[in-house]
What we know:
The complex is a heterodimer of chains A (182) and B (369). Chain A has 182 residues and is an all-alpha fold. Chain A has two domains: 1-95, Rna Polymerase Sigma Factor, Chain: A (Orthogonal Bundle); 102-182, Arc Repressor Mutant, subunit A. Chain A has eight helices and no strands. Chain A starts with 5 loop residues before the first helix and ends in a 5-residue tail after the last helix. The model of chain A is unreliable at 92-100 (pLDDT under 50). Chain B is an alpha+beta fold and 369 residues long. Among the domains of chain B are: 4-45, no CATH class; 258-363, CATH 2.40.50.320. Chain B has ten helices and eleven strands. In chain B, the strands form two sheets. Chain B has a five-stranded mixed β-barrel. Chain B has a five-stranded mixed β-barrel with strand order 6-7-8-11-10. The longest helix of chain B is centred in the first third of the chain and has 26 residues, at 86-111. Chains A and B meet through helix 2, helix 3, helix 5, helix 6 and helix 8 of A and helix 1, helix 3, helix 4, strand 1 and strand 5 of B.
Amino acid sequence: MPIREEQQFAGELRNLEAQALAGVYDHYSVAVYKYVRYRLGDDRMAEDVASEVFLSLLESLQRGSGPRTNVKGWLLATAGHIVTDHLRRAYRRPTESLDDEHPDAGRSLDDEFDRRQRSRDFQRAYQQLTHEQQHVVALRFGEGLSLEETAAITGKNVNAVKALQFRALQAIQRNIGESPHE
Amino acid sequence: MNRPEDALETAVQALAKGQSIDTALADFPHLRAELLPLLRAAAAAQQEGGAEIPVDVSRRLRMAFLDRAAELRSAGVAKPRWGMHPFPRLAMTLGLVLALALTSTGLVRASSATVPGDQLYRVKRSWEGLRLLLSVQPQIRYMLASEFEQERLDEIQELLAEGNAASIGFSGVVSLKQNGNWLVSGIPVAITGSTILPATTIVEGEPVLVFGVTQGDGVVVAERVTLLPPRAALPPLAPSMVHDDEQESQTEPPRSDSALSDGPPAYVTYQFTGIVERLGTNVWQINRQRVLVQEAAILGSIKVGSEIWFEGYYARDGTFVATRIESTTNLRHDDGRHEGQGSGGEGSGSREDSESSQDREAEEPEADP
């Protein structure tokens, strides 16, 4: 944040000032949506949950809590909790939204079919991970965050994140290998 | 590096930089058999990323978020901030003011003419924050906030005129966009490849918050631009260079460079809310800015101090010409009439109400803010 100090910005957020909130939305909505979409694999659910994340921010700010410095970290951590709750409520219902995608005009039909098949296999494998593993994979590979950023958001140390990542990728590879399409 | 977890992390980072799986594993031949399937899984995980938020979804989310924030703000007006009883808060702030007055009056006065980058600039901003905190009445708070936003524009104007570089932030309205050259409330702003812009495209007429650095060539290079909500409090219309005479201004817009001033006709409509500070025959002062009103349709009873909603356009000389002015009290009776109004239509310039500004002039004495 080049101009305003973090503390001043946090103060503006706590006062629910429109400019500060609009800035937060414009700056972080892409990251939040990307994360949620990655974890849920469904556009409609991603919209609902992303909305819930930002409304949760408002409620927290009104209570006098909410982010103090790392707004993005707070939003992604909150998104992680909300997605997990959502998945628990939904009993991990599989989604088939990938079938609704429009074909990519730049690919041949075979390539497009293969891409979708790989994507479906990955989604199935990913959905079988623990919530914690899903969280780490979404942050590292969906958001492109560093190990340190991921550790800060998950509240774990770097070595623990490395171990989680290792086990998550092992499980994905194993689950993809067990896929009927392999 | 013997631990497979560490080697995997190194290989994952190489993969993220665009290296092939084979290259990423080249440093770990002894772990290749173990890591190869994991790195393939990592590559698949990377390919699943990158879903962008659709524009319509982003707009819906943004609107829901800011609408809810507005609801919470209005619901929280009656509550003392920080859950503190008003009397202790008042006593505390009065004590603080007294302490400041005794110890630092000179400091505050000395800081009043500072600009970003000066040593005492933080004192000036802190003093502004304190004054806002002490403003109990929302109307006074609003006027003060507007005055401070105006001060931001004037500071930038001064930095640009002197060719000094400093980090700045200000609110304004985008009145012109030509390639990477924007004019935001009279300030020339350069949008570069590294400027962070919102997901949705900013169009002329939208209020924005600009963070950037002033340059020696009279332009602010934007680092980040964010959108303000459609009905945000009025950002300043342009840097003050207020002419007290009430003749229709034919002056050039302040510091607009030639590339920008040769832009498209400025008949794009803008909507604002603001506080009337002075009522003249043809010119009103709203939020410290001159607004021409002779073309305006004026609805509702308006006097000095009234909060109003108004719409209009920028004339080529940078003057704001109102086409419709309405008391917000009037609007509340008919709430929703202006909901969803976007910027960027043709300026109507129509006169829908027979009540002229001269009529009101007779009712309301001209007053300084």
